[in-house]
Design a protein that fits this description.
heterodimer, A: ABC transporter involved in vitamin B12 uptake, BtuC, about 0% strand, globular, B: alpha/beta, six-stranded mixed sheet, four-stranded antiparallel sheet, 12 strands
């Protein structure tokens, strides 16, 4: 009972954020600004839900609450892909101009990268979580350095074009891609609905899950691919927001103490929408676009991440 | 009947379980005993498909366990390991309800609820059924997990060192419950034990392992005697009879 009340409360806050963002201080023609704001809200909701959903299921499958697909280096992979395209093919290449093609390539390469990375995670029983974290961080740094190296060499004009792809931004969301992303999200949710209760059993740990008849290896593989596709989709749509998943998933665990994934995912999704839409509102109307939302989220998320690490190590020690 | 046929498991080049063949008879308590590193837990894990065998096979009745669908297997055989670390906070009742998952897939029917109530009552947990697992003592936690396995209502119940970290009173309690499961409900229990005296007093059959091989296998009487124990543990262990129980007095033996 109390969890449903909490969810309703979150939903109300999310709706307030959305209404504020949609209607506050509309300048110029209503018919001009309003549809554009709606598209942004739509894009933010899709991104938020995709990140929240993929992070929660990823963390259940890997039995940890600190690693997220983004922290494990998926975001860096996106940056490498984009930088390579701009560096080797230039901003007039078909891979840049055709947004669908760019979107598809980003998703395919990120999912491939995730699968390779997960070969490691698969033997997660043998490695402590800090080892995996380290692998992710090292890979992320390696890819980040490669990106920087290429960016130093690249033509400055190309770099300006590239930069707009590498920072999460809701200011220039492509309306066509939003619908593609929405379709992917719907498919992911239909599948997710089928495995929701298996995920509940998963949270009892590997051995208990197998004991209760969950086809463990297959479920792990499916969910890992699912989470990679979702993260890739949201990143390709707006750019990387590394720490958002970590924040919303952990806030959801704290706020809704339950094992039920239907509740946890709904909670994380709503918190995610609040963070993105509410945050974007603050960025546009209080900071007057002097900063971007991803900078704020990564700043807060980074601090929260360190806090979680410290808490975890204290609990372990 | 569960038949283990020429089962091996290698970690690196070392055979942890080395060509083991064992038959587990129904309606009995079978104990796996042996020194540390003998491969008892590994063997149990392979029987319950937590771990894949490198060679050999495990047959449930006449079917290879790897060919049985996971959810069907979960209705026949349950396994409880010693470490049960969890990320989530659950009450005892929620945990025990998970035992019905193979049948109800998360949507509890009235029949499922009946099984959960019975399991809670069987393990004497009704009073504390709404307490959270992390608030319980080791003994209560262990009982809660066993209650989950009882709710799962499988013919075979496999337990990996269920007496770990339990005091004498709770150990005896749990062994008595396992005995009841076999005698009253007709279950088959397989248990990995460290304390040979519990194995001696409560089990019908004993399988003794050492260095990944079976050294002795048979009814409890045939295993609990100084000669056999010497082979298993490399110790001279006098066996004394007390109130019809054979007790191994190993505390001051020479090895």
């Amino acid at each position: 009972m109390r969890n449903s009340v909490k969810l309703i409360l979150l939903a109300v806050i999310a709706i307030v954020c959305i209404l504020l963002y949609a209607f506050y201080d509309i300048k110029g023609g209503f018919s001009y600004a309003f549809p554009r704001r709606l598209i942004k809200i739509f894009a933010m909701s899709i991104t938020g839900i995709a990140i929240a959903y993929s992070t929660v299921v990823f963390q259940t499958i890997t039995h940890n609450r600190i690693l997220t697909p983004s922290v494990m280096g998926l975001d860096s992979m996106y940056q490498v892909v984009q930088t390579c395209i701009y560096f080797f093919l230039g901003s007039t290449s078909i891979l840049v101009i055709n947004k669908y093609l760019n979107f598809t390539i980003s998703i395919v390469l990120m999912v491939l990268f995730a699968l390779i990375l997960y070969r490691f995670l698969f033997r997660a029983d043998k490695f402590p979580i800090y080892f995996l974290l380290l692998v992710g961080m090292v890979l992320g740094t390696l890819l980040g350095s490669a990106t920087t190296f290429l960016q130093v060499l690249i033509d400055p004009n190309e770099y300006l074009n590239l930069q707009s792809k590498l920072f999460a931004s809701f200011s220039k969301v492509n309306a066509d891609l939003v619908w593609v992303a929405f379709a992917i999200l719907i498919v992911a949710f239909i599948y997710g609905f089928k495995i929701m209760r298996q995920l509940d059993v998963m949270s009892l740990g590997r051995e208990n899950a197998i004991n209760l008849g969950v086809n463990y290896d297959r479920l792990v593989m499916n969910v890992l691919v699912l989470s990679a596709i979702l993260i890739a989709t949201s990143t390709a749509l707006v750019g990387p927001i590394t720490f958002l998943g970590l924040i919303v998933a952990n806030l959801s665990y704290q706020y809704l103490p339950t094992y039920k994934h239907s509740v946890l995912i709904a909670g994380a999704s709503l918190i995610s929408i609040i963070a993105l839409v509410g945050g974007q509102f603050i960025v546009e109307h209080i900071f007057e676009l002097s900063t971007t939302l991803s900078v704020i989220i990564n700043f807060i998320g980074g601090i929260y991440f360190i806090y979680l690490l410290l808490r975890e190590s204290r609990a372990a020690g | 009947m569960i038949q283990v046929k020429e089962l091996s498991k290698f970690f690196g080049k070392k055979a942890v379980v080395d060509n083991v063949s064992v038959t587990i008879e129904t309606g009995k308590i079978t104990s796996f005993i042996g020194p540390n590193g003998a491969g008892k837990s590994t063997l149990l894990s392979m029987v319950s498909r937590l771990l894949n065998a490198d060679t050999g096979e495990v047959l449930l009745d006449t079917n290879d366990v790897r060919r049985i669908k996971s959810d069907e297997f979960a209705k026949r055989v349950s396994i409880l390991k010693q470490s049960n670390f969890m990320n989530v906070r659950l009450t005892i009742r929620e945990l025990v309800s998970f035992g019905r998952y193979p049948y109800s897939k998360g949507r509890l029917t009235n029949e499922d609820i009946k099984y959960v109530d019975q399991a809670l009552e069987y393990m004497n947990l009704i009073d504390i059924q709404h307490s959270y697992l992390d608030e319980l003592s080791g003994g209560q936690r262990q009982r809660a997990f066993i209650a989950m396995v009882i709710a799962q209502d499988t013919d075979y119940v496999l337990l990996d060192e269920p007496l770990n970290n339990l005091d004498m009173k709770h150990s005896v309690q749990i062994m008595k419950i396992l005995r009841k499961l076999v005698d009253e409900l007709g279950k088959t229990v397989v248990i990995v034990l460290h304390d040979i005296n519990f194995a001696s007093v409560y089990s019908d059959r004993i399988v003794a392992l050492k260095d990944g091989r079976v050294v002795k296998e048979g009814p409890t009487d045939e295993i609990i005697n100084s000669d056999a124990l010497k082979q298993i543990y490399d110790m001279d262990i006098p066996v004394q009879e007390q109130n019809g129980c054979r007790i191994c007095v190993y505390f001051n033996s020479h090895s």
